# Entry
Amino acid sequence: MLFTCPLCGAPLKEEANRWFCPKGHSYDKARSGYVNLLLAGGKHAKLPGDNKMMVASRQAFLNKGYYRSMADVLCETAAKYLPAGGVLLDAGCGEGYYTALMAKKLEAEGKPAEVYGVDISKFALDKAARRRKDIRFAAASVFHMPMTDDSVDLMTEVFAPYCGEEFARILKPGGIMLLVIPARLHLWELKCAIYDEPYENEVREYPLEGFEFIESIPVDGEITLDNNADIQSLFQMTPYYYKTSEEGQRRAAALQQLTTRTSFEVLVYRKLDYFV
Ligand SMILES: [Zn+2]
# Structure
């Protein structure tokens, strides 16, 4: 168990219905199975993360397999780089779609891992924890994860906020970080359908402080959504939703069919030994 007590930093131990530390701080499991390690009144307690609607939209959309090709590449890459019996952390795991698929893939490859998921949204974790009981899910900020230093062999971060220092802290020396980012023309046709002047995604430079860049794996595809509910789900799970004008919202609400390209990059990094 690599999660630590958010109050005193000691490693947590597990019982059926709670996690606790040697000093007696205790954290109950929610009915679904995740544990809230956000301290009431703490620095991150007021950050709600994704709300109920965003979580429901994303789960509905992902469960239909629209992003499965990217998920498969992510799973294959995790299986390629994770040592047998290693520790996997999904930082910003959301409702656990990718976390659960990776755990399943690693089992299928004959090298099951010890799997952890962290997200700040309790709505998302409630869904995640119902997917698999053998993955430990905790509510916490990815900027301040209650986790032991140098403990993770491979971490993944899919469309979630990047915090290099914190990721380097929890990774073992030589540990692997997989980042999934939207590429330049991801969802281009969706944007064209909604905006008068769609803009391309900015793609950042590969070098990251404290990490060695290993490779970028592009995953390009095309998806067809043939009903408005799925289109709305996709729209609502993107960052564009809250930046869209009423006119744009109306256009999205009227769309009954949409074929759009999807374009991701899976970036692979290795933590440098001398990062402090
Ligand atoms: Zn404690």
User: Anything to note?
Assistant: The two ends are 24 Å apart (CA to CA). Residues 5, 7-8, 10, 21, 23, 25 surround zinc ion (CB under 6 Å). The first strand starts at residue 13 and ends at 14.
